[in-house]
Amino acid sequence: MEKYMNNLYEEFKKSGSNDFEIWLSKEQEIVRYYKAFIETLDFIPRRGVLEFNKGKYNSVVNNLSEGIGILVSEEKINDKKNTRSINGKVVIDKKDIILEYNKIRSNINFINFFITQFPTNKETINILADLSLNDKIIFIGAYGDLNDNDKEEKLRNLYNLKQELQIYLGKNFYGEVVNTSNYYLATITPKYKYKKHIIN
User: Fold this and answer.
1) Distance of CA 93 to the CA centre of its chain
2) Measured distance CA(24)–CA(19) in Å, rounded
3) Which domain does 177 fall in, by range?
4) At what angle do helices 122-133 and 151-169 cross, to 10 degrees?
């Protein structure tokens, strides 16, 4: 819990906001917008979703109205009927996708959709790249207030990651950035169902 909150506080400082509680409340509102945004892209599955490195205040999976979500997080959140949070890690053992937690190894080949949002870490990106090589759908995003100080940094990092993944994986990645009246919402994925490609 402490590490998770420290990471959130670092995000708050980078945003340039002045009040942590107001910023945190806004983050939860943006997550709801972001969830609705990715659902309109028409390929997020109803079952079998795993989200990396998010928690109580910034989880997309925990806001899904239905389906099975497994949240790999360092903090226990209030699990819903079809969503549970797990402090664990994903590894690829030969061709099997394994979730390791509490000395338990569970095969999660049934999960096809893996998601995270910036800021994230290199280890997570490497796992996502390996999952894509194993024909899993990966989805990486960024979102925030249009006035955040780190907006351009997040979008630039997302663009650079898109380029790196295309070279490493040898497949095209597509991106989209949408602005609401207050927020920006951005994604990259190798899936092809985007109607328009704004990150080129």
Assistant:
1) 23
2) 9
3) 2-189
4) 40
pTM of the predicted model over 0.85: no
CA dihedral 29, 34, 40, 45 (to 10 degrees): -110
Residue 195 in any domain: the answer is no
Q: Phi first, then psi: what are they for 97, rounded to 5°?
A: -95, 120
Number of Cβ within a 10 Å radius of residue 72: 23
Condensed to tens digits (0 to 9), the pLDDT of residues 37-95 reads 877 776 666 667 888 888 778 888 776 655 556 666 666 656 666 677 777 888 898 88
Residue 109, domain member (yes or no): yes
Q: How many domains does the chain have?
A: 1
For the chain of 200 residues, list the mean pLDDT of each consecutive stretch of 10: 79 89 90 83 69 81 63 63 75 88 87 86 88 88 92 93 90 87 90 45
Cα separation, 83 vs 86, in Å, equals 10
Q: Does some domain include residue 198?
A: no
Which residues, in sequence order, are bridge partners of residue 83?
69, 80
Whether residue 196 lies inside any domain: the answer is: no
Question: What CATH number corresponds to the domain at position 108?
Answer: 3.40.50
Distance, in Å, from the CA atom of 80 to the CA atom of 37, rounded to the nearest integer, reads 21
